[in-house]
Amino acid sequence: MELAGESMSKVDTAWLRMDSASNLMMILGVWTLRPGIRWGALCRRVEERLLPYDRFRQRVEEHAGAPRWVDHDVDIAQHVVREKLARTKGGAQVALQQRIGELAMQPLDPGRPLWQIHLVENYEGGSALIFRIHHCIADGIALIRVTLSLVDGGEPPPANRAHGGGNEAPEWLSETLFKPFAGLVLRMFEAAGDGAARSLALLQQPTRGVKGSLDLAHDAWQLVADAAALLLMPDDSPTRLKGRPAGSKRVAWCPPLPLAEVKAIGKALNCSINDVLLSCVAGAIAQYLKSQGDDVAGVEMRAMVPVNLRPPAQSQALGNHFGLAPLVLPVGVENPIERVYAVRQRMDALKGSSQPLLAFAVLALAGLLIKPAQDAIMDLFRSKTTAVMTNVPGPNGQLAFLGSAIEQIMFWVPQSGDIGLGVSILSYGGKVQFGVMADTQLCPDPQAIIEHFAPEFAKLSLVTLMLPWGEEG
User: Fold this and answer.
1) Please, which residues bridge with residue 411 across strands?
2) Cβ atoms within 10 Å of 80's Cβ, excluding its own
3) What are φ and ψ of residue 460, in 5° steps?
4) pTM of the prediction?
């Protein structure tokens, strides 16, 4: 008997099974709009632009322990729902933040496609849209692009309604993971072959010689070193932000920063925008810990940073096409210039490693195993990590949706296992938005972290202006 639907890829299966009582694997996003929009118009736009993607019309069914994507008749009223915010002392933004925190721990209906859009019809004179999409559908890079197809003038869904593959490894995975590793193995076999074969190879490629042997040794050593670095990661510093989460969430965000100023600092210090922003994140966390009476001298905090492995040609393909790089943030470094250079040095080391590819391979392996075995593998990462942090470039220009201006775009990445802190950075319309999601057991008020972000950026900007021009630290 032929099974209905399409089998889920192994990596997407791993994300599906990561849901727990303290962390649900949902990507959450928010758009704030002005003026407000109507529910009926929103439903029509979603039907036109989102439902052509297969994954948004499919539910997940388990067959002999293997999940499959199965077509489902979508009741749009069950997926696009109206919200009314509770009145709070802090005003509409605090009420919206509280509601997003509640929805972060409200499971999606497993009998339906794993997504939902919540319309807050009266938010600060406009509207707000809250997106909830399960991570097994796609990663953050893909979902940003897919949701942006909803905007006025947005790109329509591709004709082939591209999505992640099932049992067959997609071409991008073959190119980025299997072929490089297979090539390394093949070169090892060539190096170990008999004398005649090796002599013939040298005659055919006389320039390889010693250089080829050194390249082979370097590649093999790099692979082994990166694997060992993942397997033998030491614990990061114990802080109040690391511990067992209780399963109650709060989110927070701050007014956006001008992207041009971030770029100017990066250019002056010969650092990337990402280096500058992550350094400010480390500084904000340090100031928060000190405000709680904690000593931050020597504190280092490991954050799992997603690394996009998706080729540009598949920018709208769904599924999860990313690896994870363990970045250790120098929280205990007080000097902002010293801190940004420490971040740059550590990011540069990760860029030259195969750790993101190895992490992707671990996720694929986890998806092949039963859930207890998968949990044991994933605990290797989660027990040595305090946060998940991601930086996604958004549109440069201002966007509109159903005739209303999209004033802010924010999103929050899910945390898995015992990780209780998520940090998200998104650029949009020439500004940079910084958001935090935290488990209330570990951080009752993530706004207290947010409030230190802009001052840390201002401090770095001031110190940069005081540096001698034309010199690098």
Assistant:
1) 29
2) 23
3) -65, -40
4) 0.82
Return phi, psi of residue 380, to 5°.
Answer: -60, -40
What distance in Å separates the CA atoms of residue 253 and residue 391, rounded to the nearest whole number? 14
Is the pLDDT at 350 greater than 80? The verdict is no
Task: Flag whether pLDDT at 65 surpasses 90.
Answer: no
Alpha-carbon gap, residue 378 to 381, rounded angstroms? 6
The pLDDT assigned to 75 comes to 96
Task: Find tokens 């775009």 and name the residue.
Answer: 409
Give DSSP secondary structure letters for 365-423. Answer: HHHHS-HHHHHHHHHHHHTT-SEEEEEEE--SS--EETTEEEEEEEEE----TT--EEE
Residue labelled with tokens 């998200």: 424
3-state secondary structure of 310: coil
Identify how many contiguous H helices and E strands the chain contains and give both numbers: 16, 16
Look at residue 314 in the predicted model and tell me its pLDDT. 65
- What burial class does residue 352 get, using C-beta atoms within 10 Å of its C-beta: 0-12 exposed, 13-18 middle, 19+ buried? exposed
Between 295 and 224, whose confidence is greater? 295
| Tokens found for residue 259 | 């992207």
For residue 299, which phi and psi values (nearest 5 degrees)?
Answer: -75, 130
User: What's the CA gap between 52 and 73, in Å, rounded?
Assistant: 13
Tell me the CA distances in angstroms from 446 to 253, 263, 409, 449, one per residue in order. Answer: 9, 26, 18, 5
**Could you tell me the two tokens for 445?**
């008020």
d(C-alpha 377, C-alpha 298), whole Å: 29
Which stretches does DSSP call E strand in 296-349?
Answer: 301-308, 322-329
pLDDT at residue 203, rounded to an integer: 34
Q: What is the 3-state secondary structure (H, E, C) of 34-96?
A: ECCCCHHHHHHHHHHHCCCCHHHHEEEEEECCEEEEEECCCCHHHHEEEECCCCCCCCHHHHH
Q: Dump pLDDT digits (tens) for 16-35.
A: 888 888 899 999 999 999 99
Residue 379 is predicted with a pLDDT of: 64
Contacts of 406 (CB under 8 A, 6+ apart): 31, 32, 33, 151, 398, 399, 400
In terms of Cα–Cα distance, which of 97, 467, 457, 466 is closest to 287?
Answer: 457
Cα 371–Cα 376–Cα 377 angle in degrees, nearest 5: 95
Strand partners, 363: none
- Segment 381-391 mean pLDDT: 81
The strand order across the sheet containing 80-83 reads 80-83, 115-123, 126-134, 26-34, 404-412, 400-401
The vertex-58 CA angle with 373 and 321, nearest 5°, equals 55
